[in-house]
Amino acid sequence: MPGTRGPSAKRYGRLVVSQIAALTLVFTSGWYLSRIHDVLSRDTSPAACVSAGQLLTTLGHDARLAVASVCFFFIGGLLAHFDVPSAVETAPQKTAENLLVKHSAPASNDMVRSTIVVQAALVLFLLVGVGLLGYETWAVNSSHGEPPAYWPITWYVRCAAALDRNVSLVIASLVSFLVGHWLWYRPARRQ
Amino acid sequence: MSIPVAVTLGAALMTMLLGLALSDFWFASQRSLSVGERLTSWSRKNPVFTGLLLLVFGALLGHFYGQ
Question: Which chain A residue has the Cα nearest residue B64?
């Protein structure tokens, strides 16, 4: 992005940590997917997870998941604001949007293109989320009283948790870390 | 959603996340904002939307792992 300050050592450090978290999440989730596929390809009934050794419906409350999720959320958020770099590094982007929206002034093509790409990606991400939540609602509703033809997403997650609770703990912690890292709002430091 | 479709969809989502994670290094090499930094910037400018997203995220975690 034009005008963006060059990357600092702290910025690279944050990038590396978040990349490690994201890549670990990808590979543990991939391992989960392969295990679920192995189990459910033999038996697609909800009881398939029982054969893995634990009941799908008796996961119960696990305080470790809640505590770890909250802790890693805060760790991710604190790490994101360790250097409070975005106040400086995002200044050109803010300026581009302010120019376009608030002042109706022309901005450079790079600035406009960058803003459009970010907004389009965000809309796409939210649309995918809405679609998945819609499917989840429909599948949960259709699963009452009779064996469902289609599994809700929740069942896949709980099946994975039944297969190995510790890996679920790791995945929930990593997701919370990334969410806290990216979304935890704290006012930027003024210069 | 059948099992193969669900697993394929999950794999596709993981591939997207992998691509996003790797793209951060490319953005850094270009001295540009990474995806995560763009998202952080967006969350700073839209705290209400961010709060709603976090609410959904927490509700999903509770829904998935709480009984």
Answer: A154
Choose, out of B5, B7, B37, the residue to mutate when testing the contact with A (most A CBs < 10 Å).
B37
- Look-up: residue for tokens 């394929």? B8
Question: Phi-psi category of A186—alpha, beta or left, where left has phi over 0 and alpha has psi -120 to 50?
Answer: beta
Q: Where are the domains of chain A?
A: 9-183
ipTM: 0.72
- The answer to whether the beta carbons of residues B36 and B24 sit under 8 Å apart is yes
pLDDT in tens, B17-52: 777 777 777 776 677 777 777 777 778 778 888 888
Query: Are A28 and A177 spatial neighbours (Cβ–Cβ below 8 Å)?
Result: no
Residue A11 host element (H or E): helix A9-42
Residue with tokens 């982007």: A93
Interface test with B, best of A33, A44, A88, A138 (most B CBs within 10 A): A33
Q: Is the pTM of this model over 0.80?
A: no
